[in-house]
Structures are given as C-alpha cells and as structure tokens.
Design brief:
Helix 7 runs antiparallel to helix 8. The chain is globular. The two termini are 25 Å apart. The protein folds into 2 domains: 83 residues, CRISPR-associated endonuclease Cas1, N-terminal domain (Ribosomal Protein L15, Chain: K, domain 2); 179 residues, CRISPR-associated endonuclease Cas1, C-terminal domain (Four Helix Bundle (Hemerythrin (Met), subunit A)). Strand 3 and strand 4 form a beta hairpin. The protein has 9 helices and 8 strands. By secondary structure, it is an alpha/beta fold. It is 44% helix and 13% strand.
C-alpha cells in the first residue's frame, strides 16, 4: 500500500510555517497523516512537511512513527517546559553536514577568523560597523550594554514597567509580565532559528559570540533578529496585559510576525553571509558525502517553470 502513496514533497524551509506549540495530546501518524489526538479523542491534522519547528510542551506524547515522519520531512521537534521556557531535548532533522561542520569549526577555532564573523554579526544586528581594534570579549561587552539600553527604550515606548531581564524558571508565576512575554517570544525565535541552522547543515553548539552551550550558534544567529522581531512583540503584548495566558498571545503574534517578515526566507542566506565574512572559502564536500536531507528536485523546465 505504501508504494501507491505519492512521494513526500516537503516545502523548502523558507516557505514553511515557522513554529507550532502542542500540549496535552498524543501525536501519531494515522492514515499517513501527522495528527494530534486530545483527551476526548478528537484528531487534529498537522501539515508537518510545511512546518519548520514543533514545540512539544508538558503533557504531550509522541509515537515512534510520528518522530520518524518529522525527521523525514525535516521538521525539528523540540521538547520544552511550560510556556517554552526551558528546552530539554530536540530531534535533529537530517543533522549537520560534515563539510559545513568542519568549516564552521575552523572559523570558530581561529581567533582572527572568529573575530571577523563576530564583527559581521554586530554589523547586521546594529546596522553599523563595530568599533575598530576590539576583541570578541570587548565587542560582547559593548553589545550587552546596547541590549540593556534597548530593553529600557522599548519598555518606555510601550509604557511597560521594567527593571531587568531576570526571572526564575523554577518559579515562573512570580516573574513580571514583561519577562514572561520576552521568554515566550525568544523561545519561538530560538526554535525557528535552530531549525534553520540544522537545515543549512551547521552545528547549533559551535558558536562565535556565545560559547559552551548546546545552542550557542542558535543564540548567535537569533540575536541578529531579536530586537527587530520578537522583542517589540513581547513588549506590545505585555503593555496590553491580556488576561489568562499572555504567553499564548505572544506565540500567536510571533507566528504572524514571522510570516509577515518572511524570517525563514532570510535566516539561511544570512548564515552564509555571516560565515563568508571570514574570507575563507567553504570547502567542497567530498565525493562520498551524504547530501542534504531534503534535496531540491530537478526542475522540468527553465527557471520560471514550477515543477
């Protein structure tokens, strides 16, 4: 019967829905479709081949078939805590490619090359060239000061009380609404960014500004977009102070904003642009290298033909 089904045709990363959150349901594959079954037995189909990242919150169970299908279509599964505050594990959709992983590691291990990459990240993030003759540590300090100032300015702009970026993940309800909204917003951005990093063939842990964490490179890339995308959304929702579940309001707003700004269309080209700032060409893949998890099919016509 499986041979009669058409081949999987997952969408390119840039054309996908950015992120979905699922809680309190069983995820399985029924009649070839990725579905969520809730406590009452109601099924909700999810077009998994058109989603970049699925966040699995507490109360969610995942079958082996569902995990296998998500891997086949290149959808990242991320197990997170309540409101997406803590990340526990993630399933790699295809994994890093050895040629790109070695290239990324080469840039991260050489201090001169690393500094060039960090300076490019700084320029993209703030729209200006960083100060000359500064080390990575010095640029990190300058960046931190500008980030704190940006939080203060946005809080003032939206009329939100703000003290600092600080919360206790073990006592989530005690956090102020601004920090809760910011945490929910950044979790959405990190999930989408990790999916793009993996789809591009790079390793999430090999960072340039951030180091020593499983998602260091994800944080590096996400920070390029953070203050033009999710942070204003978080402060806007915090200012509105919606009753009940502000985190859900933040997620919906972030999903719409990702679609409007076509963020997934930008991340992978920007990663290549950032790493190319090292002025070191990326090595060619060896002849026996495994290809991308989602190869681009050959077109039947010219560039204007949609195959």
């Amino acid at each position: 019967m499986s041979s009669l089904l058409p081949p999987l045709r997952p969408l390119p990363m840039k054309e996908r829905i950015s992120v979905l959150f699922i809680e309190r349901g069983e995820i399985d594959v029924i009649d070839g479709a990725f579905v969520v079954v809730d406590a009452t037995g109601i099924r909700t189909q999810i077009p998994v081949g058109g989603v970049a990242c699925i966040m699995l919150e507490p109360g969610t169970r995942l079958s082996h078939r569902a995990a296998a299908l998500a891997a086949r279509v290149g959808t990242l599964l991320v197990w997170v805590g309540e409101a997406g505050v803590r990340l526990y594990a993630s399933g790699q959709p295809g994994g890093a490619r050895s040629d790109r992983l070695l290239y990324q590691a080469q840039l991260a291990l050489d201090e001169n090359l690393r500094l060039k990459v960090v300076r490019k990240m700084y320029a993209l993030r703030f729209g200006e060239e960083p100060p000359a003759r500064r080390s990575v540590e010095q640029l990190r300090g300058i960046e931190g000061a500008r980030v704190r100032r940006s939080y203060q300015l946005l809080a003032r702009q939206y009329g939100v009380e703000w003290k600092a970026r600080d919360y206790d993940a073990q006592d989530w309800e005690s956090a102020d609404i601004a920090n809760r909204c910011l945490s929910a917003a950044t979790s959405c951005l990190y999930g989408v960014t990790e999916a793009a990093v993996l789809a591009a063939g790079y390793a999430p842990a090999v960072g340039f500004i951030h180091t020593g964490k499983p998602l260091s490179f994800v944080y590096d890339i996400a920070d390029v977009y953070k203050f033009e995308t999710v942070v204003p959304v978080a402060f806007k929702i915090a200012a509105a102070n919606p009753p009940g579940n502000p985190e859900r309001a933040v997620r919906l707003a972030c999903r719409d904003m990702f679609r409007q700004t076509r963020l997934l269309d930008r991340i992978i080209p920007d990663i290549e642009d950032i790493l190319s700032a090292s002025e070191i060409p990326r090595p060619e893949a060896p002849p026996d290298a495994v290809g991308p998890a989602l190869p681009i099919p050959s077109s039947l016509g010219d560039a204007g033909h949609r195959s």
